[in-house]
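Class prep. Protein, please:
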Amino acid sequence: MKKLKKTVAILAVTISAGLAFAGLVHAQQKTMSIGTGGTGGVYYPLGGAVANVLSKNLPNVQATAEVTGGSVDNLKLIGTGQSEMGFTMADAALDALQGQDKFKNNKVPLQALLVVYPNRMHVVTVEGTGIQTMADLKGKRVSTGSPGSATEVMAFRVIEAAGLDKDKDMKRERLGVAESVNAIKDRKIDAFFWVGGIPTAAVTDLAATPGIKMKLIDHGDLAEKMNAKYGKLYSPSTIKAGSYPGYDKDNSITEVWNLIVTGDKMSNDDAYAIVKTLVEKKADIVAVHKEAESFSLDNQSQDRSPIPFHPGALKYFKEKGVGG
């Protein structure tokens, strides 16, 4: 009987030690929420790939990609501590850091982890709307992006640089890219703005729709005017012919870089491990979306990001002889 009691006692100690160890492991497991965008864009699939790569390669990290309205939402989620990381366009991030525009009196302390890829502004319409140039948007029904997105931030700046008034010169809707595509197919709107990677799934869907001829409106000449007012954030670029089904000519556009950012709480060790993993496991992310080709060391320069790099990220870049 004594022997049995002793065995039970040993078992109890072993089990409680095992549970304590499991609790310790569980306590060390970090959950990281990554703010992305709507399901029709590029942030969402890319964010899913980033979350998978981090969860697979960092033993103590469980990362998840969250569907959001986009950059502005992601920055606000970081500000309130609901997300550890988020995708954002450089212009919206600068507004958050400085407490401007949609972040008036609500500064978000931000640090950049990685410059990821350039976001291209698409000004999209279809044959039959009479829209050939930016000036032709006057009097039309136009979507300028969902309320929590950086599409809206940049669309307003493009419209302003074109000499139009976003409130008086057009009937404005606030739709995400997938909703915009559905609305233009149903002839409920005449044009929409969308800033994203190439290809964007929803725009591909529109271009491939039988009986509809998609058109992209040139506006690359407006970058200089936008920079004169908002700082050197934008550059002229091109959506190349063939980027979308049946689209056979180059489109002159404005672009801005995307970043993955965090707040002021992430440790140097975590930032270092995350950045190292994203750069070195880039091929796994490219397999999901080719814009991840830009997750490269040669893009990690501070002039592409108005947000200061996290010290942990800088440590990795320095080891590799780049960045900052």
In short: Residues 90 and 151 are 12 Å apart (CA to CA). The chain is about 40% helix and 20% strand. Strands lie at 30-35, 61-66, 85-89, 111-126, 141-143, 171-173, 191-196, 214-216, 235-239, 251-262.
